[in-house]
Design goal:
This protein has about 325 residues and is of the alpha/beta class. Helix content is about 40%, strand content about 10%. The strands form 2 sheets. Strands 1, 2, 3, 4, 5 and 6 form a 6-stranded parallel β-sheet that branches. A two-stranded parallel ribbon has the order 7-8. Helix 3 links the parallel strand 3 and strand 4. Helix 1 packs across helix 2. The protein is globular. It starts with a strand and ends with a helix.
Length: about 325
């Protein structure tokens, strides 16, 4: 079972608590070196909405230093700006992308986008749930959408080949981004709003737009996004969301964005060690291995490989 996971908050927990990425309390664990499997983990540094711009920027640099140090110590291949996703994934048991959750980390400085790209940042989630200099998140009641600065950010991220992540975006922000984006965008950790009516989830129209632009969507394991009754959320809800996504054409776009170490998991999911059981659950529900492998790693691998080609060109 190979895996590419588009989102976890393990790095944030590591930085805030000054503990190792493989500390026993973490949901995400690196694979052991004697496995035949390969995993690429996207490690996000989350910026809470109540942090100032300066504090967010400082947290970003602290997280970068922590990730570089931990990757070296744990033998995790951390991708640099020009590293090829496919070769990194194939040639390393454990590999990692550095990502940012909340564009407040830019601290209103457009020049930080190039700095972040040069440091290996692969994805930036434009907002968290509230507002920042770029625009408004999913919990802003009357969203402004994308600000003037936000429009510049979208353009500059595309220029520097940082993937735009619209998870956490308000609906207005989503459509504003799609009006001007020229490259595929992704939703690293968002489920179907048709199945679970939560503003953090994607409408069918948004899903179709992401599919049509060549983007990808990561299934999220947070109980409130899996089930309208969060107390009843369970592993099978992943199948429900998957079935709906597939029914509207997302077979080549669906991935995982677990949100491990950043969410409330259903009791049936214990962290990354549950991914084997989730794979078996798909098999028990008569999914072809070819489709399961697309969701577990193939779709994300193809997306990033194509994004690498666009950058080189």
């Amino acid at each position: 079972m190979h895996l590419i996971d588009l989102h976890c908050d393990t790095l944030y927990k590591s930085v805030i608590n000054n503990i190792s990425l493989n500390e026993s309390s973490m949901d995400v664990k690196p694979l052991s070196e004697d496995t035949d499997f390969h995993k690429l983990q996207c490690y996000a540094i989350w910026m809470p909405d109540d942090l100032s711009g300066d504090d967010s920027e400082n947290l970003f640099y602290k997280a970068y230093n922590m990730l570089v140090s931990e990757a070296q110590r744990l033998n995790i291949k951390l991708a640099g700006k020009n590293d090829c996703c496919r070769s990194q994934f194939i040639n390393n048991i454990n590999s990692a992308y550095f990502t940012v959750e909340n564009g407040s980390a830019l601290n209103g400085k457009i020049e930080n986008i190039k700095k972040f790209a040069d440091m290996g940042v692969k994805i930036i989630t434009l907002t968290w749930n509230g507002s920042n200099d770029i625009g408004d998140g999913a919990k802003v009641h009357k969203s402004r959408g994308l600000t003037k600065f936000g429009k510049t950010v979208v353009s500059e991220m595309e220029r520097e080949s940082i993937v735009i992540d619209i998870s956490h975006a308000s609906d207005k922000l989503f459509y504003d981004v799609m009006d001007i984006a020229t490259k595929p965008v992704i939703a690293t950790h968002s489920n179907s709003r048709y199945i679970t009516n939560n503003l953090r989830n994607l409408t069918d129209d948004q899903v179709k737009i992401i599919i049509n632009c060549g983007g990808i969507i990561g299934l999220n394991f947070h109980n409130e996004f899996l089930n309208n009754n969060s107390d009843k959320a369970n592993m099978f809800d992943i199948i429900k969301h998957t079935e709906h996504f597939l029914s509207i054409g997302a077979e080549n776009n669906l991935c995982f964005g677990s949100d491990f170490d950043g969410c409330t998991l259903p009791n049936s999911i214990k962290g990354s060690e549950s991914m084997d059981e989730i794979y078996e659950m798909f098999l028990r529900h008569n999914y072809k291995e070819s489709v399961i492998n697309k969701i577990f790693y193939g779709n994300a691998l193809k997306f990033f490989e194509n994004f690498d080609i666009r950058r080189i060109m």
